[in-house]
């Protein structure tokens, strides 16, 4: 992720590429045990608009950062991808996502609720 976040254009200006869809399905493990990030289909440079052509913010809801869930395109950056990685770690530790429910409920929880501490979550 850091590699994509720090790529530069031909003039040396940072592109600040943000994946915007970090989830377990987009993480691949090589034979040597290295993690590779796949599916940069909705990745964008932070200097450009983060909405798709149809005006929607894309990504997997359970792994979206608060700024993605809120549609705050001016705040989406490398920290959004880091948030999604944190959700993956939470899921690895607890066996579940930090928030569950309908789309509206999950968005509200992502925006306004602290997830339960992993040590307090009972894995099913």
Walkthrough of the structure:
This protein has 124 residues and is an alpha+beta fold. It has a single domain, classed as Transferase(Phosphotransferase), domain 1 (Orthogonal Bundle). It contains 4 helices and 4 strands, in the order αββββααα. The strands form 2 sheets. A two-stranded antiparallel ribbon has the order 1-4. Strands 2-3 form a two-stranded antiparallel ribbon. The relative contact order is 0.15. Mean pLDDT is 79; it is low at 48-54.
Strand order in space, largest sheet: 1-4
- Number of distinct beta strands: 4
Low-confidence stretches: 48-54
Query: What count of structural domains?
Result: 1
> What radius of gyration results from the CA coordinates?
15 Å
**CATH topology value:** Transferase(Phosphotransferase), domain 1
Q: How many alpha or pi helices?
A: 4
């Amino acid at each position: 992720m850091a590699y994509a976040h720090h790529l530069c254009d031909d003039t040396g200006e940072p592109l600040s590429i943000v994946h915007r869809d970090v989830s377990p399905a987009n993480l691949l493990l090589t034979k040597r045990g290295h993690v590779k990030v796949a599916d940069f289909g909705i990745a964008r440079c932070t200097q450009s608009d983060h909405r798709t052509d149809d005006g929607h913010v894309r990504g997997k809801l359970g792994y979206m950062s608060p700024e993605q869930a809120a549609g705050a395109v001016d705040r989406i950056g490398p920290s959004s991808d880091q948030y999604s990685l944190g959700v993956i770690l939470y899921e690895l530790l607890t066996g579940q996502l930090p928030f569950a429910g309908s789309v509206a409920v999950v968005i509200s929880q992502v925006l306004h609720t602290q997830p339960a501490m992993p040590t307090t979550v009972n894995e099913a």
